[in-house]
Write a structure and sequence with these properties.
Length: about 325
């Protein structure tokens, strides 16, 4: 269970509540079956009137909003073949540190191969659709495939690389974590997208079709990286973790920013700047978090928005208060 209050630079508040119910049963020594549902509700305070980007001559009225979703979080069957574990169906997958992909409800087949105690491979192939059981919007899915290799150097120290595609995007990335000294550690990830063909969200009648990029014009590659310096831990009651995060993510690195594990912060507009996160374990199963970001979007030169105006930098000064429970 997670409850989040977000307050942004426009003094606009949003409350998100999310509950996941997951069950996993081991059928025998080789088979397991998993099923899960996710319930999410988002409520936002009234926004100020603003120009409609699809029609610059029209002002959109400010209004409060609420959105409720029910998602098929997992419905999978897995089997072990010695060092190989195969899973089929709706499932979760995190690649690297999640900068590109860290999401549930992926309709894929995956394979994990433990080559040695310190080396493993993770493969996946299928569709990236997130299965909403109740939603007002029509969702679209794309071909998703990935290969990841990871090597462990010792306790809490590892590094890896991956190749992936999320039609039409093509990714290559590297990542790693390592302790420095005492309770201090560092984590990082870099991802590069060499797709230069950017379909627009606008169709032939200049209407949004829900598939494509909000900004177009540039034909350059895009990239992004994340660095996180951490002190402490957040595993049991009384633990305290401090994280200083730095994001440098290009605009339109992702067509759909909903698949990154950092989708609360990173959008198609990109993100560049610092964030400070404070986590305190109020019990062995509950965590209170405070996050503050001092950043801005990161436009790519040559990009234009849906209405034909050039992409411009905008501030991102946002505060999050989160309360998370896991049982």
């Amino acid at each position: 269970k997670k409850t989040v209050f977000m307050y942004d630079q426009k003094k606009h508040g949003t409350v998100k509540a999310e509950v996941r119910l997951n069950a996993k049963t081991k059928v025998d020594d080789t088979y397991d079956v998993a099923f899960g549902l996710k319930f999410k509700s988002t409520s936002a305070e009234p926004t100020a009137p603003e120009v409609d980007p699809a029609d610059p001559k029209h002002m959109k009225d400010g209004h409060a909003s609420e959105k409720n979703k029910v998602k098929l979080d997992e419905a999978s069957i897995g089997r072990s073949f010695g060092p190989v574990y195969v899973k089929l169906g709706v499932q979760s997958a995190t690649i690297g540190e999640g900068l590109w992909l860290g999401k549930s409800s992926l309709n894929i087949g995956s394979l994990r191969y433990t080559m040695t105690p310190n080396d493993n491979v993770f493969l996946g192939y299928g569709r990236d659709n997130q299965d909403y059981l109740a939603e007002n919007e029509k969702t679209q899915s794309r071909l998703l495939k990935f290969f990841q290799y990871e090597h462990t150097f010792g306790k809490d120290a590892f590094a890896g690389f991956y190749l992936g595609a999320q039609q039409p995007e093509r990714y290559v990335g590297v990542y790693g974590e390592t302790p420095l000294f005492g309770k201090l550690s560092i984590m990082g990830e870099y991802v590069h997208n060499n797709n230069t063909t950017k379909p627009s969200t606008a169709d032939g009648n200049n209407r949004r079709n829900g598939y494509g990029y909000e900004a177009m014009g540039s034909h350059s590659d895009t990239a992004g990286y994340l660095l996180s310096l951490r002190y402490g831990q957040a595993k049991k009651k009384g633990d305290f973790l401090t994280s200083l995060n730095y994001f440098n993510v290009d605009q339109i690195l992702f067509m759909d920013d909903g698949y990154t594990a950092y989708d609360d912060y990173i959008t198609q507009d990109g993100l560049k700047g610092f964030g400070l996160a404070l986590d305190y374990m109020t019990s062995d199963h509950t965590k209170l978090s405070l996050e503050r970001y001092w950043a801005h979007t990161k436009p790519v030169a040559g990009n234009f928005r849906f209405d034909g105006t050039p992409s411009t930098e905008s501030p991102y000064y946002t505060t999050y208060v989160k309360f998370t429970s896991k049982f």
